[in-house]
What we know:
The protein is of the alpha/beta class. Helices cover about 45% and strands about 10% of the residues. The chain has 16 helices and nine strands. The strands form three sheets. The chain has a five-stranded parallel sheet, with helices on one face. Strands 1-5 form a two-stranded parallel sheet. It has a two-stranded antiparallel ribbon with strand order 6-7. Helix 10 runs parallel beside helix 12. The chain is globular and about 80 Å long.
Amino acid sequence: xxxxxxxxxxxxxxxxxxxxxxxxxxxxxxxxxxxxxxxxxxxxxxxxxxxxxxxxxxxxxxxxxxxxxxxxxxxxxxxxxxxxxxxxxxxxxxxxxxxxxxxxxxxxxxxxxxxxxxxxxxxxxxxxxxxxxxxxxxxxxxxxxxxxxxxxxxxxxxxxxxxxxxxxxxxxxxxxxxxxxxxxxxxxxxxxxxxxxxxxxxxxxxxxxxxxxxxxxxxxxxxxxxxxxxxxxxxxxxxxxxxxxxxxxxxxxxxxxxxxxxxxxxxxxxxxxxxxxxxxxxxxxxxxxxxxxxxxxxxxxxxxxxxxxxxxxxxxxxxxxxxxxxxxxxxxxxxxxxxxxxxxxxxxxxxxxxxxxxxxxxxxxxxxxxxxxxxxxxxxxxxxxxxxxx
Length: 390
């Protein structure tokens, strides 16, 4: 028996209408969700140019260079920290009385570092730039093809990342689970800006340092799966060292272009009368030991250390090699995952640099130095878990 065409068309019409309505309702729900956690206003001046105690941790875009440049111009620091995620634990409390900002993650290679300071110096020049450099920055492919640094907020990148981000089960689950904290983060009670700040307490503090909420709250399930942390003996990264994978995949001659980029970074600072301090951030001693026991890794690290030392000597630049956390008298438990040290280890790093760096020690007036030493010598400091203060 032939179906009546009217009935078929009517069903199709109802299906299309209901699908459109459902899509609109879902879109409204998602938009309301991200509006509630301040995701949609994260790049506005109200959220960037403020001294309010906020935690900035967005879901989309990860346009860190935009955020960190605008914050640097707003804060106008005398002491600027620059580097990758391995320098995110430098905090204002370690530089009392000093105009300070941690611009970590604005640059993930030397080319980006050069671009960042060029943009910054057109409007503000700090007195000292502390640049943490990573061993993988000297891979000849690292940064060679990097695009021009993004210094203005781009909506199209937000949209592209949003479409990719929204298909993740965790995001969809969070929309309906009600486990977000819209009022304050669970660690320091800062007002969260963005999805990650609201859900995991991950994000940048007002001084530019990064709060690793998942680690501090013991909810970093990926660390357990990958076996990255101290309780696993840093197995993930030690295996990477031995097998030359991931961050430790390159062990040949350091790139000449990368060496020249480092020289250019120093020369740009000299031109603008900005003092430069270069350093290798620490690895957990357990990882450093594995590097020393792996011949090709050991040779590569010796090469890059010698190269940076030579450049520093030629340009009369202060340079510190902190590759081995044990040399700072800090135990491996004070790392977040072996490659990233915590605030306590970072405090010891700053203390060491103040002792030997003329450029850094000049920033600390007697009162500020007394306050710093009071913090650094606190007897109960080592009892804390990763942080100096919330």
